Every structure is written in structure tokens, then in C-alpha cells.
Amino acid sequence: MKKMTIDEINKNRNCLKAIGGDCHRVLNSAMDFKEYVLFEVIRHWDNFVGKIISENSKIKDITFKTENLTSATLHIIVSSGTFATELSLNKTNIITKINSFFAKDIVSDLKITQGFNLKK
Questions:
Q1: Most CB atoms within 10 A, among 1, 8, 55, 112?
Q2: pLDDT at 70
Q3: 64: closest CA among 94, 43, 90, 35?
């Protein structure tokens, strides 16, 4: 079974949300913890940041600083400085929402970079 790339997951976010329950059960058993967290954050990204920011940002990766899979940095790319500023100003709130979703302190930082093209 071919693994989806992060770009494919981002592109199919709404589809994944619609089939979420069934898809979640199947994929959860085939993923490691990092992939699971990344998949769920992408799937629920619009709930964490809102529709407008969600449409102007993409999750690129998640990196864990510790072996116990906490203190993760979520790597996000945005379409403009406006959205980078908005994410930066709401960083604490976004991290709190993500960690509340998982009922565990997983994400500790957001690394935000500019540069994705919405037309791609």
C-alpha cells in the first residue's frame, strides 16, 4: 500500500474529513505515532486555525525533540506574511487547541515559513 505524501494529505483534507471515521480506524493501525499526529493535525487544521488561515497554509512536517514523542515542532508554510503574522500572534492558542484535541501535550512550537503558492 502506497503511503500518501504530506502534500497529498493537505490536498485531500476535505475528503479525509468526510470519510474520517472509517478512514481513521484503518489508517491508525498502519501508521506510526508521528504519522498519526501529522494526519490528524492536517485533517482538523481548519478547526485549529479557522477557514481563511487553513486555506492559506499547509502543514509540511512535525518533528519531535524527545524520544517520548512530546515537545514537537509543527512546520507550517504560509502563502504570505499576513498569515505568518496571524499564526505567530495566535501560536499559544493554536498549540493549546491541538494539544487539547490529543488530550496530551504533544506540540510545543510552531515553525512558520512563507512561500507556498495557492495556484499549485
A1: 112
A2: 78
A3: 35
